[in-house]
Amino acid sequence: MKQMTKKLSLAATTVVLASSLAACSSNNNGNDAAASNAPQASNNAEASNSGGNLPTLKRLDVFQGEDYANYPVAKLLEEKTGYKVQYDMLPQDNPAQKLNLLMASGEPYDIVTSYIDMALYSDYAKKGALIDLTPLIDQFGPNIKNAISQQSMDALKVDGKLYAIPNIITYPVGTGILIRTDWLDKVGMKMPTTTEEFEAVLQAFKDKDPGGNGSQNVPFTIKGDLPMIDDLVGAFGMPNPWNNVDGQLVPRVLDPAFPDYVKYVSELYAGGLLDKEFVVNKDATAKEKFSSGKAGAIAIHWADIPGVADALAKAAPDAKFSYVPALKGPSGKSGFGANQGFDRLSFVPKASKNPEDAVKWINASLEPATFKELAIGVEGTHYTVDNGSYTPILPIFNDERNLANNYMVGTDEANYPQYWQARVRKNPVMFEAFDTLNNKTADSDKILNELSVAPYLENYSKNNLKLETMAGDYTVKLIAGSEKLEGLGDFQKKFNAEGGEASAKEVNAWYASK
């Protein structure tokens, strides 16, 4: 799923660092390195080809709560690939800002993995900060070619060159509105199915205070950097950042339904049904309000539920919750945005001292048996399989494979969706939430985000970060009442002038050809 605070910092940083990133292109490491024999597609290919004289690779990865080097998967990968890896990680807050600084400084990482941001990735590629991986994969990457589909590689090409290896998304729907069903019982109401019923439920939560929180009672909380609330935006026909309007893809802030959505959410806010502090809520703040028993509903990703559920069980042992289904809006529309495409990207910076070895390491990690053991462990020890269905063995799976996805550079696209079943079943509460959004939601309410499968689009990639930041900030102000809808036309003109019009022309030229 991709936060306004992060994007604000990133947008400013990108402008400041543009000249520094351009300077990275003068570093000639990588593509003209001397050729060597291609490795065999075996677990220990790299060690056998190098006599064991392998460099220590330097990798930058996403944040995780445990030390990368001491997690069991790190040892597995060292044994299977022959390479030692020095792991650093991005911070939990504002990771993209830190990544920009490291890239601009020329820090010699051999592999960098980050959550997908196509605008940022293409910007790095355009400015010469990344190595074209195509010749290296051709020479050293038979497992990479077998694991990553040509369609995936083509989708990441910038000016005909491939600068990153993707991790595919294995589920369509990530976020919905989680609601306290025990609160529903206390106020004598059923699970809402429409936006009107949802508002009525929130009003009952406010008036009857089923959690006994008094002045701290919060009917519905969200974080302030995501004013487009999943499920609710779908009820107004805008489940994705760009949606089909009369055959054209249109960004939400230009969508004819945008004013109706804003009116609905701003009425929730004005009526005390939406958290009065949502504008300043960070992700952790909103989660704390729900997990402490103060909030009756929250917009949240299913993968975040285990931590919230554990804390809530301590604060309110009898608490129960479930996802609200796809709500029908005033015109009968409903749906969740459904993604295909990629979750993370890994690239080799131009500053890398070991680009060939980086690709060899990636290739060895994607050897089929190695990747499976990386992803879900050993059958009978970490998981069982019955009729093709993978189930984790607990608690060892959580102890030794819970964070395995953070070590992946690319995925075995043909098999990982099956292996992934074990990962999503590692927590029963999380699986129930995942199952509700992804398996129990009707296919008609899972609406494909068309741009999640789009190739590199120059204007869209260049402008999208800035435009999403503009639109998000403006939407927050509209909901909170510091801006009025009467000024929407002027904002839309500014939006188009800042790149919205150019992006729309490019996006819809591609959409028509598709």
Automatic annotation (TrEMBL):
This is Putative aldouronate transport system substrate-binding protein. Residues 31-52 are annotated as: Disordered. InterPro entries: Bact_solute-bd_prot1, SBP. The keyword Phosphoprotein does not apply. Transmembrane segments: none annotated. The keyword Transferase does not apply. It comes from the Bacteria. Gene3D superfamilies: Periplasmic binding protein-like II. Residues 1-25 form the signal peptide. Keywords: Cell membrane, Lipoprotein, Membrane, Palmitate, Signal. It holds the Pfam family SBP_bac_8.
